[in-house]
Predict the 3D structure of the following.
Amino acid sequence: AEVTPDFPQPVPTMKKTASSTPIRFTAKESEIYSSSLGLKKKHPTVALNELCLKLNREKPIFKEKFDFGYWSYEIEIGGETFVCPSGKPKKKEAKNEAAKYVLKKIGII
């Protein structure tokens, strides 16, 4: 008779999901994530990327727009799109502003 080794079942991996569940935090959850990840000390775009990574979400998608001499961004996270209402003359400033806007909307800052 042929002997086949008994291998354990593979461990499931945590796959990044483009979950359609919106990200929202209570004040307590916000404080926990902000403190444990040090989000308040980080650059807004870095903080947003790290938060998505920690929550096993896809990285945020930044879509830039240029109207009347001002840059603005739309940021999509998990199927939800956030449109930053303010524009900036510099692209980098606009991206930071949009990331801050999203962090405020989801309850992190």
Remarks:
- The first strand starts at residue 61 and ends at 67.
- The chain has three helices and three strands.
- Helices lie at 27-37, 44-54, 91-106.
